[in-house]
Amino acid sequence: MACNLENLVTEAPNIKTSNIDQKTPLEILQLMNNEDKKVALAVEKELPNIARGVEKIIESFNRGGRLIYVGAGTSGRLGILDAAECPPTFGTPQEQVIGIIAGGQEALTKAIEGAEDSFEKGMEALKEVNVSFKDVVVGITASGRTPYVIGALRYAKDIGATTVAVSCNSNAEVNSIADISITPVVGPEIIAGSTRLKAGTAQKMVLNMLSTSSMIGIGKVYKNLMVDVQPTNKKLIERAKRIIMMATGVSYEKAEKALIESNYKPKIAIIMIKTGCSYQEALVRIKKGGGFVHKAIKNC
């Protein structure tokens, strides 16, 4: 497969930074900051497509499916980062959101040469996690032409999974493969081809939106509070107490007591306080409410 990088905007030289090597540190930072300001606007243009992705992910979660990120290099690391942060933030099972990177775990901290160049390895990676028609597979590739990601998306589509492509080139090859294409075009990088910069920032913003909005859509947030946070250390235990206090208006002492009585489940503690019900009753209410606190309280 020929690379054909000359047609990719992510590989193009940026005329505004052509003499960046002659700038002072402050001037370099000003150039970077000005370019970074373009990222949010590029992502904004893709909100309808991101929303389509979120809707499919929520559907997947509700039928027992998973969100699976696949990428190489910076893109792969961003997917793994987003997946890793879902269990502590939203109380999800480890297997509900998965990140896969070309080259495996070793590629998280070092470049694995040639890992992204195989279509077959992308397919094999999805086979290893038993991808099914219930899942949503998100291929992340700044260029939109990474063979590893293309192989994974093709395989996912063949077995009936929903496929989403996140790239930063409007003519990306993955756009013709995926069911949903999310393409924030951020323009040339300040250092030509260094897609860890604007492209990476855009991809991170998109992944934040996909996972966070989907978690809100399955009841992992009450008001704007992460009520399914897992209080696994002292800081998170204190955060859980504050969440209960903010959601219910009770004192620190009452929040602490409720957290203990709820078996350290902030969501359940809030329902117990708001409705005056027992721990077991709160569990029934949250199940009947489909995981949504406001529904569990309303149906009291």
From TrEMBL:
One of its GO terms (molecular function) is carbohydrate derivative binding. PROSITE patterns: GCKR (PS01272), SIS (PS51464). The active site is at residues 85, 116. A lyase-type mechanism (elimination/hydration) is suggested for the cleavage of the lactyl ether bond of MurNAc 6-phosphate, with the formation of an alpha,beta-unsaturated aldehyde intermediate with (E)-stereochemistry, followed by the syn addition of water to give product. This is N-acetylmuramic acid 6-phosphate etherase. Pfam families: GKRP-like_C (PF20741), GKRP_SIS_N (PF22645). It is an enzyme of class 4 (lyase). Pathway: Amino-sugar metabolism; N-acetylmuramate degradation; Cell wall biogenesis; Amino-sugar metabolism; 1,6-anhydro-N-acetylmuramate degradation. It comes from Caloranaerobacter azorensis DSM 13643. HAMAP family: MurQ (MF_00068).
